[in-house]
Amino acid sequence: MGDYANAVLIACGDDFRWVVDSAAVTAFGDRVEAFLSVGEVTDTDVVDKIGDEFLAARSTARVSTVIEVEPTGSGDVPGVDFDQRETVVTPAGTVECVGITYDWSADNEDATRKVPEFQTRLDVRRSESARAVDRLITRSGGRPAVTAPALDLGTAIPSGKVGEVNVPPWSWSDADRLDDDVQAWRAETPLRLYRWSVSADPADATGDSIFEFEINGTGNGLLNITLGASDSYVEKEIWGYFVMYKGDVLHPFCSTNGGHKTGTIQFLASDIV
Which domains does the chain show, CATH number per domain? Predict the structure, then answer.
């Protein structure tokens, strides 16, 4: 189901608030929950508006369609008949070409193909929604300490261009090791977590493996990742401003061992300038 959601629990200041798309819950037949942190935004009207915007593009289920372009003549050659930012009509509907790459798997250079990457209108709407949520949080004063002070007062928040922050991955080589407590990681600089993922070999898996993480001993079950018995990769967005400061401790762990082996846990983070 990916990032589908029809209900979102919003952490706002020291409180929590649910925003639910009741019509989407009824249409889908089940309640699918997500989690969003908006920092110090506490105005309930604003929080509800942020929640509505968050759900607007996520309460429509995504349908995945794999499209392979095999040019048969004029009109369907990537980079010739259509280019980036142009729309193409496919059996899956009208999609936008957002990139063209090369398939280097061919045995000879002459056989190298151009491979288009498409984005649906739903993808575009979800990107717009993510930007709108960020703008609403920012305008409402929800960025917690994102502006660097003129003098370093011990926060270690840097000034300058926002960039990626490296969070070392965790890995295991045998399913039995999933029951071991992994070593926690301590942040050396402030950062914002925005996505995490788990990849593993499901060859010997006998059930679901559930992964969680805590920051300074506190977790949130809505951000858990579940690897099904046949799953090899699952990622989850960490929406809002999920911030760690210098000295904060990040601790991922497997709470339910389904027998997945040879895997990796990876977090993606950015500066919070």
Answer: 145-273 (2.60.120.340)
- With H, G, I as helix, E, B as strand and everything else as coil, classify residue 224: coil
* Residue 172: CB atoms within 10 Å: 19
Pairing verdict, β 233-244 and 33-37: parallel
**Residue 177: both structure tokens together:** 């090791």
- The secondary structure of residue 169, as a DSSP letter, is -
Q: Tell me how far apart the alpha carbons of residues 168 and 166 are, in angstroms, rounded to a whole number.
A: 6
Spatial CA neighbour of 250 closest among 268, 232, 227: 268
**What is the pTM for the complete model shown?**
0.48
Spatial separation of the C-alpha atoms in residues 97 and 123, rounded to whole Å: 12
DSSP-based three-state secondary structure for 165: strand
Judge contact between 119 and 95, C-beta under 8 A: yes
Which residues make beta-bridge pairs with 171? Answer: 264
* Six token digits for residue 46: 């604003």
Q: Which residue has the higher pLDDT, 173 or 242?
A: 173
Phi/psi of residue 219, nearest 5 degrees = -125, 180
Render the burial of 109-143: b for 16+ CB within 10 Å, e for the rest: eeeeeeebebebeeeeebeebbebbbebbeebebb
The DSSP-derived string for 117-153 is EEE-HHHHHHHHHHHHHHHHHHHTT--TT-SPPSS--
Beta strands in 31-183, from DSSP E residues, in sequence order: 33-37, 87-90, 93-103, 113-119, 164-165, 170-172
- Tens of pLDDT, residue by residue over 103-125, are 555 444 444 566 666 665 555 55
Cβ count near 179 (within 10 Å): 10
Per-residue DSSP letter, 157: P
